[in-house]
Design goal:
mainly beta; Jelly Rolls; 6-stranded antiparallel beta sheet; 3-stranded antiparallel beta sheet
């Protein structure tokens, strides 16, 4: 049985600039076709606009407030919001609040730096 506590997952910085803790993925569990991570952004911080050629993502906001940009559309998001990010879609999330933004990120297939393509 794979049970990984967030406090025990080592943080690392992804290609888009967010700090994540990979909770379940092929690198640390029996999971093979998806991944689950906790991501954090400090106030005023944003991920670098990017897309994934293969991976689809879901962001689920736990705390904080943000502006989510998907393609040409930007809208405010906050706790309880789930955001669908299809493969190939340019996206970025910006912390617009005074507190740290915390969200879950699921990826299918699992997150890989090599499937992250930075854009300007």
């Amino acid at each position: 049985m794979d049970v990984i506590n967030q406090r025990e997952a080592a943080p690392f910085t992804t290609a888009d600039g967010s700090t994540i803790r990979e909770l379940l993925a092929h690198r640390n569990s029996s999971i093979r076709k998806q991944s689950l991570a906790e991501a954090r952004l400090a106030p005023g911080q944003a991920t670098t606009p990017h897309h994934h050629a293969v991976t689809e993502e879901i962001y689920y906001i736990l705390s904080g407030s943000a502006a989510m940009t998907l393609g040409e559309e930007t809208r405010p998001v906050g706790p309880g919001d789930a955001i669908a990010i299809p493969p190939g879609m340019r996206h970025t999330i910006s912390n617009t609040g005074a507190d740290e933004l915390v969200f879950l990120c699921t990826c299918a297939p699992g997150y890989e730096h090599t499937d992250t393509f930075l854009e300007s």
